[in-house]
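Example 3.2
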Amino acid sequence: MANVVVVGAQWGDEGKGKVVDIYTENADAVVRYQGGNNAGHTLVVDGEKIVLHLIPSGILHEGKRCVIGNGVVLDPEVFIREITNLKAKGKLQDDSVLRLSESLHIIMPYHKRIDIAREAKSGEKKIGTTGRGIGPAYEDKIGRRGIRLMDLIDPDVFGRKLKEFLVEKNFILEKYLGEEPFDFEQIYKEYCGYADVLRKYVDDTALQLYRDIKAGKKILFEGAQGTLLDVDHGTYPFVTSSSTCAGGAATGSGVSPREIHEVIGISKAYVTRVGGGPFPTELFDADGEKIRQIGSEFGATTGRPRRCGWFDSLVLRYAVRVNGLTGVALTKLDVLDQFDTIKVCTGYSYNGKVLDELPSNLEVFSQCTPVYEELPGWNADITTARCFADLPANAQAYVKRLEELIGCPIVLVSVGPGREATITLKNPFK
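Structure, written as tokens:
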């Protein structure tokens, strides 16, 4: 038996959806443990592109239980729309396989309006949020003034809490942000309608997962965003509002850390990030644009162009350390097929010194410049490779060099968007 956590090892958008989809074959349940609909997982199944924002990508496999854990903040409107879209595609025919933690927190309309208005007010200090209300929802969770799913499905409790919290929110919106206030009756009616739909999915998911593990079932934990966006361990304040690292899988699901056996970090063969914040290997030249276009590096949730750069081994070594990675899944290797030479960052130059570890001080990090090692490209189409030996010699050498630099085995290599375009070197469930 093995329970496996999948985390982003960079700044998010690493291709976790595809890897989770592949690993789901070996799992009995898939758990989303943090974040909200500010994340998007894009999968290509039988030539059809499917984008999921909240529901674990394991939902595309029949008979697999999919759980949205207590660490997630849920927008009911988005969740219901996602269900509707899946059903229209012939998926999710059995509603009993999808469970929502009764303890997860609900994103309210005022969270979204506050999020957008604050970002607009920030000017040049913008974080680059998606405006989905994620941060304000987590603020209310920590401030002990959040509305949980168990509250939402009880009309009396929901009405009492909404009326109480709306006084403060309307004050902030009107007096500080210059926005229109919300009407209690309008929100109450709308969200009671959502509650009627959500009620059948509600469960004590932590208890159910405990029973599953005791019964010898295998659990796959699915994170959103990436290690460098973790609220504690990322490039603060240019981070998300939750624990994206492997430790978040325990707190965000109610499963003991002792029941987690493998942690797989997902990393692109290069690096991207969305929003503000330091990015030492970012490219502003033709190579950066080439990566963006070949890799279709535009946000699944927002459509924003992603910032692109060469692979950064310091970022990955950091991810190995803070997550306790037991393996790395390397994605989008095929995007580099058309490059004569490929650069890899092996250190940072700062004030005349070369750093070989990621600095925790954001001011230092923002002034670092990359020290590169240059490797020969392979100038060949690798999308049909199905085992490591199928890769050109230079592609094999590139993967092996990354493995040496990050100090962690690469257990999977993705050479295209489809499920089949995958080289599996080790199965973490076995």
